[in-house]
Amino acid sequence: MTASLDLPVADAALAESVRAGLDTIEARLREAVKHADQLADTASRHLVEAGGKRVRPMLTLLAAHLGDGHRPEVVQAGVVVELTHLASLYHDDVMDSADQRRGAAAAHLVWGNQIAILVGDLLFARASRIVAELGPEAVDIQAATFERLCLGQMHETVGPSAQEDPVAHYLQVLGDKTGSLIATAGRFGAMFGGCDAETVDIMIRYGELVGVAFQLADDVIDLSSAGRVSGKVQGTDLREGVPTLPTLLARRAAAEGDAEAQRIVDMLDGDLSDDARLAETIEALNEHKVMSAARDESARWAHEAIGALEPLPESSAKLALRQFAEAVVDRTR
């Protein structure tokens, strides 16, 4: 995760139950990535040991408490979604040529691209073995989620066609790469918590929306003072040439004749390897209206996620899910 998000649970009993669940998931994650082969074992543990906020299993646990959060299948489902997420990170870092992940060197810099990709595949395989124990429906859901993750990465790599709106294309990529797995996390929690079909559907919708809001908030954090507070290295996405909502909005504004936006685009398309040049570009983006527009877009998705929860009866779990969506936006300020 790229910013601090405290466990959004006001109810002490619920908070304790979720923390206990996360502790169990953490232990099982470490067990799940063990290999007899030394290279596979070391490389598979690399990102698990780097840490993370475990947002996806946390949402699985919270969603389960809309029903019975103490069923053993819930913890198992939490392990599946986090293993799947970790596997995707190995692949993402190769695709994006990232230098770091969670403060540690990216796996491909330590072992090379081929090993990093294969380790990601190993983790997907482990997740598949674990989800098979949860039954055929869970396997089908996991497979569909994996498909969307791959399509999202493919579409991000290829980019929008000449006929596509780049912002709409980007939001679809976020839905596939981030929203899909967060939706599955909520879906599994509600399913294995014994909730009814309506509640499961609500959690799917909520997860899709809050997942996109989360990534849009990350786009802002990468360029704002919130990034400095959280400890994130500013401008990472800019330097790596990764499209984000603020830069896409700047390009749109430039195409519509905004002279200042055009100046920013020229900077974006220049050499950002120099720290001073990168800082100048970040400052120019922060002074332009595209940053507030990006914040507003993140807030819009988060508020839609909150709205998706409305049909649920009031409970501590519902309140925590609402507060999580609010916290996603609050961290950009």
TrEMBL record:
PROSITE patterns noted in UniProt: POLYPRENYL_SYNTHASE_2
Enzyme Commission code(s) on record: 2.5.1.30
Coiled coil location: none
Record InterPro entries: Isoprenoid_synthase_dom_sf, Polyprenyl_synt, Polyprenyl_synt_CS
Highest rank taxon of the organism: Bacteria
GO molecular function: heptaprenyl diphosphate synthase activity
Keywords: Magnesium, Metal-binding, Transferase
Cofactor: Mg(2+)
Signal peptide coordinates: none
Family under the similarity heading: Belongs to the FPP/GGPP synthase family.
Protein name: Heptaprenyl diphosphate synthase
Naturally occurring in which organism (per UniProt): Kineosporia succinea
